[in-house]
Structures are given as C-alpha cells and as structure tokens.
Amino acid sequence: DFTTTYFTMVEADALDYVKTRLSFFPDDAELTCKEIGDGNLNYVFRIIDTKTGKSLIVKQAGPVARISDEFKLSPDRNRIESEILSLQHKLAPGFVPMMFHYDPIMNCCAMEDLSDHEIMRTALLQYKKFPLFADHITTFLVNTLLLTSDVVMDHKEKKELVKQFINPELCEITEDLVFTEPFIDHPRNDVFEATKEFIQENIWGDPELALETAKLKLEFMTNAQSLLHGDLHTGSIFIKEDSTKIIDPEFAFYGPIGYDVGNVIANLIFAYVHARATIDDEAKKVDYMSYLEDTIVDTIDLYKDKFMVAWDEKALDPVASYPGFKEYYIGKVLDNTAAVTGLELCRRIIGIAHVKDITSIQDQDKRAAAEKICLSVGKMLILEREWVKTGEDYVKVIREFE
Ligand code: ADP
Ligand code: MG
Ligand code: MG
Ligand code: MG
Question: Whose CA is nearest to atom 15 of ligand 1?
C-alpha cells in the first residue's frame, strides 16, 4: 500500500507502484524494473514493458535525511522537481522530460524515459560533439529565466511563484558548498594533494577574493530575479544529436539569472580542460578543444542575443522600455554569469563535490595542471567579472592561464 506512509522503494516496490497506482501501462503489460540512479540521495527506477518496449521513469526522493551526514534534505524537493518540470515544459517546450505524475506521500514522480539520450558529461568525456547544444541550451535558458522574471511576468503571479519554489534546504547546500566552504580552509573540503599549496596561496590566502565571494553569496540569497534550475551542470543534461533535455531541477528557486548560465559555462570549461589533459593526438586535441571553445562562445553570445530579442517582444513592465535599462539589466546578468562560472570552477576543485572531468585524469601532474587552470580562470572571472561580457572575453581569460 502506497497511500498512507512513506518508505523508500526497492525495485519490486517501484514495479508494484507503477502497476497499482498508475494507468501508464496496459493491464497485460509484462513489466521489469531496474534502479539506475547514482544512488546518493534519490532513487531512479526504469520500468519497461517487455512486450511493447514502452517505458517509464520513477524518481523517488530519499528519506528526510542526509547527503553526507550533515545535510538535512526535505523530500519536498520532489514536489519542487515535478512542479518546475511541468512549468518548464510550458515555458520551453521540448527541453525537459514530460512529467506524468507526482505523489506527495511516497515523494516520487513519474516521468518520460530519456534513455535514448546520454548524460552530457559522459558524452563530452568521450569527446563527442553536439553542434546544436549552444542553440538549444540558450533557448531553454532565456525561456525559463527571462519569462519568469519581473520584467515579463505579472508581479503578483511572480510572487506566487516565488512562494511555490521556496527551497531552503537545497539553497543552504549551495550557499555552503559553492559560496562558503571552498574559499576557506573548511574541514569538508576535499583537496588534491598536488594542488593544495596553490589553493592555500591563491584562494584561501586572498582577502580580496573572499570579499567578492561574500558579495556573490549575498546576491544569490537575496536577488529573487528568476526561477532557476539551480543545478545546471552537464550531469543534469541529457543529450543526443538533435535533442537536448534538462533534468534534475530539485534545487529550483528564485535566484539570480547568472547562476544557471554560469554553471553551464563552467562545466563546458571542465570538459575543455579534460580534453586538454587527456587527448594525446595533437590534431584531435586541437579539434575537440576548439569545438568546446566555440560552444562556450556561442552559448554566451546566443544567450545574450536571444535575451535581447525576448526582452523586446515580451518585457511588459513599463520600465522595460526606458532607454538603457535593458542594457543595464543584461550587463548585471553577464557580470553575475562570469562570477558564477568562476565560483563553480573553484568549488568543484576544492569543495566536497568534484566532477569526473577532473578526477578521471589519471596522470597526476596533468590533473594538478588542469586544476590550477580551473582555479586561476575561476579566480579571475570572480575578481574581474565586470569586463567579461562576450564569448570571446571568456576565451581571453582561459588563454591567459594555458
Ligand atoms: P539525482 O537528483 O539523484 O542526481 P538525477 O535526476 O540526476 O538524480 O538522475 C540520476 C540518473 O538517473 C541520471 O544521471 C540518469 O542516468 C538517470 N535518469 C534520471 N532521469 C531520467 C529520465 N527521465 N530518463 C532516463 N534516465 C534518467
Ligand atoms: Mg546524481
Ligand atoms: Mg539532483
Ligand atoms: Mg542529478
């Protein structure tokens, strides 16, 4: 019985759940179920009808417990995830999985199976190219971010959305793990030995950098600008040649627009640094790195262009048409984007949560070199965010440290 008390499901339960609670499959379906999540705090089940091949994903939030032993996590994040996926489906059709069902007792939801796509981080680590990605992700970003902002939305409806997506526990994780801990010598950090001295000197030992991270943390906590995805790294993107789908928005809340865009850019830089460290063949290396560089440039520039166009079409607040205001607004967004790119670059090297792009580099010297590039680029993007406005500006910063 799934209707009274929450419990964490195993494969047999999820199968039974789909049979008894959903009418997705026909009665004579022959269902099998497999847990396919990475199993840290959420459970992801894939249920297939072996007769027809039709399939479904059930994602359940783990108990009201912990990510490591210190983080409390409400299973309400599963509500946030289902509700924002439904909203994003309207704002940016085709860019998120279809949501079929949400269950507030079992803290689970049922959604479209995207197994014909692959996780973008994994694909980039295999040096695959996705020429449509920059176009797709920038449409997703502009549609979900600008269209949920005060310049476009009715202000009362916007404030209702702010309330709907109050997400204190997951925000606290970001506040701690992204903005605070990496920039001090915190016990939860996880530093690669060969990079430690560099971090002590260049990151922890720099009061100017500390001050800027404090300002950025305040901005993250107080600027209810747009409805963010909140965890938009390449592990939250499902991709194939002609399709891009954004998953796992459980960190969603109203925050500064630059937070989502910056995360995308930083994770493209991780893939770039990974390629630099791991491809032996010089021609192949140059080719793949320039593909990623183009993707970074296009993502920033298309983002900015589409944002301007959408503003002209959709920004209804009377102040939106004051001369200079659009440029002021996007200028602020781009500053924050550069800074968040920098924060993400630093925190994935220093903090508790790493990325495979870096940890999979086997050669220890090359890994240390890759980490130092990320940290140097990150630091500069934080400190000098005000002049980093175009795709080419990002390339300039990266080139500085290669
Ligand atoms: P978590 O919040 O625990 O990180 P994710 O939503 O990122 O969970 O999902 C974890 C993994 O489960 C993904 O990396 C992917 O392999 C698989 N997965 C998640 N959603 C889907 C889906 N809609 N279709 C197919 N696989 C999925
Ligand atoms: Mg995961
Ligand atoms: Mg998640
Ligand atoms: Mg995830």
Answer: 37
Query: What are the φ/ψ torsions at residue 354 (nearest 5 degrees)?
Result: -95, 175
d(CA 64, CA 54): 32
Q: What is the mean pLDDT of residues 306-310?
A: 98
Ligand 4 center to 224 CA (angstroms): 23
* Minimum-distance ligand 1 atom for the alpha carbon of 115: 25
- The topology (CATH level 3) of 11-111 is Phosphorylase Kinase; domain 1 (3.30.200)
Order the strands of the 243-246 sheet from edge to edge.
118-119, 237-240, 243-246
In sequence order, the 6+-apart residues with CB closer than 8 A to the CB of 370 are: 273, 274, 276, 277, 358, 361
- Closest ligand 1 atom to residue 250 Cα is 2
- CA 138 to centroid of ligand 2, rounded, Å: 23
What digits encode the pLDDT tens for the residues 339-364?
999 999 999 999 999 999 999 999 99
Residue 153 CA to ligand 3 center (angstroms) comes to 27
Domain segments of the chain: what residues?
Answer: 11-111, 118-400
Task: Provide residues with CB under 6 Å of ligand 1.
Answer: 36-38, 40-42, 44, 57, 59, 97, 111-115, 119, 236, 247-248, 250
The CATH code of domain 118-400 reads 3.90.1200.10
Does the fold of domain 118-400 match that of domain 11-111? no
What percent of the chain clears pLDDT 70, i.e. is strictly above it? 98
Rounded Cα distance between 373 and 198, Å, is 11
| pLDDT at site 68 | 59
- Packed helices 325-350 and 282-314: angle between N→C axes, nearest 10 degrees: 140
pLDDT in tens, 204-253: 999 999 999 999 999 999 999 999 999 999 999 999 999 999 999 999 99
Does the interface ipTM go beyond 0.90? yes
pLDDT at 63: 74
- pTM, full prediction: 0.97
